[in-house]
Amino acid sequence: MNDVLISTDFQIPQNPPPIYIIGAGSIIEEAHLPAYRKANWKVNGIFDLNEEKSLRLKELFQIPKSYNLLETMVAEAPEQAVFDIAVPASQIASILNQLPNHSNVMIQKPLGETLQEAKDILRIVKEKDIRASVNFQMKFIPSLIAAKRMIDEGLIGELHDIEIRMNIYHPWEIWEFLFGIPRMEMLYHSIHYMDIIKYFLGMPKKVYAKTVQHPKQMQLSSTRSIIIFDYQMPIRAFVNTNHGHDFGLKNQDSFVKFEGTKGAIKATLGKNINFPTGEPDHFEYYLQDAEPQKWITAAVPGHWYPDAFIASMADLMCAIENPHAIHDTNIIKAYETMQLVEAAYISNDFGGTEIPN
Ligand SMILES: NC(=O)c1ccc[n+]([C@@H]2O[C@H](COP(=O)([O-])OP(=O)(O)OC[C@H]3O[C@@H](n4cnc5c(N)ncnc54)[C@H](O)[C@@H]3O)[C@@H](O)[C@H]2O)c1
Question: Residue 277, Cβ neighbours under 10 Å: how many?
Answer without folding.
Answer: 8
